[in-house]
């Protein structure tokens, strides 16, 4: 009996030590550690680190491991920005802090991830989402970035994001409004465009069609303003929903459209650029608060570096993706100017609804782009 009890106690001690060895939120599988590609979804092919060069081993084993969630597969530029962030965190911390990037909705859909951040992290500590998805969590200023046609160009968007009084100040909004999230950095996957299973030639053809949108009120209101029938569906279910006709179309930038192979079931891609919504890397405030000021600065600096990498890479990425998609038989439609002007006018009510009481902030976003 004593031998049995001794064996049990020894096992318990081993398990306890293993659970504590990684610091907060440890226990991520070794094959999804920072900088190592997780399996791609929807046929997306995992990318090696830029240039295919092997990375140096960190100076020490990680003391802290955070779980980072991304909806897209490994070859998407947003996911690659996440791996860059993880790489920079490892470098700047000397390997003490590890960011475990989980792509392809492995940690859940958008609502699941945002709810996890709000509840303090643990299952998800970082999530890269879109600013157009934050209105349901009390964000108002950041949510303006997701308004239809708020940005006239990529240059205009980055002017706003890099402004100290606008983009950089808004990173703190999740703390200010009690959402329990800290903004780390922005990402850019380009303008979001409409794509459909059946042939279309202009925005007029989208009227009455069931268009998949993220599960957020802003995107639902945007599609309604354009005359479509917004249909909120989890991103991980979109391919099958297009394939079976549950929805007639959806909207996304070139990277998401390509990496998830949506072109296989929806080969008509309309360049309406209804939203130029930046992505944002968010962290659970409860996890952020546990870190020293020095480690917090490491995360912010790594975020700045990942954002700079993304900004430099996206334009060439889009050009290559367009050429590749056309080669695969995708019909890419330029949106007629008069069609787009009418759509912009139709969306003015959306601007008014989401900027009530902060009209000065909306005006500042418009003005800084001039």
Net shape: globular
Considering DSSP H and I runs of 4 or more, what fraction of the residues is helical? Answer: 40-55%
Query: What is the highest CATH level, the class of the largest domain?
Result: Alpha Beta
Poorly predicted runs of 5 or more residues: 1-56
Q: What is the chain-wise order of helices and strands?
A: HEHEHEHHHEEEHEHEHEEHHEHHH
CATH fold call of the largest domain: D-Maltodextrin-Binding Protein, domain 2
Strand order of the largest sheet: 2-1-3-10-4
Derived from helix and strand composition plus strand pairing, the structural class reads: alpha/beta
Kindly provide the radius of gyration, computed on alpha-carbon positions and rounded to a whole number of angstroms.
Answer: 22 Å
Beta-strand share of residues: 15-25%
Number of domains: 2
| Total beta-strand segments | 11
CATH homologous superfamily classification of the largest domain: Bacterial extracellular solute-binding protein, family 7
Mean pLDDT: 87
Number of helices: 14
Helix-strand blueprint:
Blueprint: H1 2-20, E1 64-69, H2 77-92, E2 97-102, H3 110-118, E3 126-130, H4 154-161, H5 164-170, H6 173-176, E4 181-187, E5 192-196, E6 210-213, H7 217-225, E7 229-232, H8 238-244, E8 249-252, H9 254-259, E9 268-275, E10 279-284, H10 285-288, H11 293-327, E11 331-334, H12 337-346, H13 348-354, H14 359-368
Parallel strand pairs: 1-2, 1-3, 6-7, 9-11
Antiparallel strand pairs: 3-10, 4-10, 5-8, 5-9
What would you note in describing this structure?
Helices cover 41% and strands 16% of the residues. By secondary structure, the protein is an alpha/beta fold. It folds into 2 domains: 25-189 and 278-314, 3-Layer(aba) Sandwich (D-Maltodextrin-Binding Protein, domain 2); 192-276 and 320-368, D-Maltodextrin-Binding Protein, domain 2, CATH 3.40.190. The protein has a 5-stranded mixed sheet, sandwiched between helices. A 4-stranded mixed sheet has the order 8-5-9-11, sandwiched between helices. The longest helix has 35 residues, at 293-327. Mean pLDDT is 87; it is low at 1-56.
């Amino acid at each position: 009996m004593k031998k049995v009890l001794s064996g049990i106690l020894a096992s318990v001690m081993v398990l306890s030590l293993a659970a504590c060895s990684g610091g907060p939120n440890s226990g991520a599988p070794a094959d999804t550690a920072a900088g190592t590609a997780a399996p791609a979804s929807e046929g997306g092919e995992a990318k090696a680190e830029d240039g295919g060069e092997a990375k140096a081993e960190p100076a020490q084993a990680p003391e802290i491991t955070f779980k980072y969630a991304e909806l897209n597969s490994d070859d998407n530029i947003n996911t690659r920005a996440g791996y860059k962030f993880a790489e920079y965190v490892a470098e700047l911390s000397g390997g003490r802090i590890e960011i475990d990037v989980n792509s392809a909705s492995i940690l859940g859909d958008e609502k699941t991830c945002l709810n996890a951040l709000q509840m303090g992290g643990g299952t998800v500590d970082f999530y890269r989402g879109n600013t157009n998805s934050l209105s349901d969590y009390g964000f108002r200023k950041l949510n303006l970035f997701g308004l239809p046609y708020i940005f006239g160009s990529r240059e205009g968007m980055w002017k706003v994001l890099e402004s100290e009084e606008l983009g950089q100040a808004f990173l703190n909004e999740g703390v200010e409004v009690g959402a329990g999230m800290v903004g780390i950095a922005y990402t850019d996957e380009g303008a979001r465009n409409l794509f459909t299973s059946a042939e279309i030639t202009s925005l007029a053809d989208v009227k009455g069609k069931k268009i998949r949108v993220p599960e957020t009120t802003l995107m639902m209101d945007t599609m309604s303003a354009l005359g479509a029938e917004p249909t909120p569906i989890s991103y991980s279910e979109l391919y099958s929903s297009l394939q079976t006709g549950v929805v007639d179309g959806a909207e996304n930038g070139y990277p998401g459209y390509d990496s998830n192979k949506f072109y296989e079931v929806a080969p008509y891609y309309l360049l309406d650029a209804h939203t130029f919504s930046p992505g944002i890397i968010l962290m659970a405030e409860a996890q952020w608060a546990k870190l020293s000021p020095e480690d917090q600065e490491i995360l912010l600096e790594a975020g700045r570096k990942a954002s700079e990498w993304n900004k430099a890479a996206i334009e060439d990425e889009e050009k290559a993706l367009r050429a590749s998609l056309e080669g695969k038989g995708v019909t890419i439609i330029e949106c007629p100017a008069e069609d787009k002007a009418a759509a912009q006018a139709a969306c003015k009510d959306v601007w008014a609804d989401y900027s009530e009481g902060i009209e000065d902030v909306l005006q500042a976003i418009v003005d800084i782009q001039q």
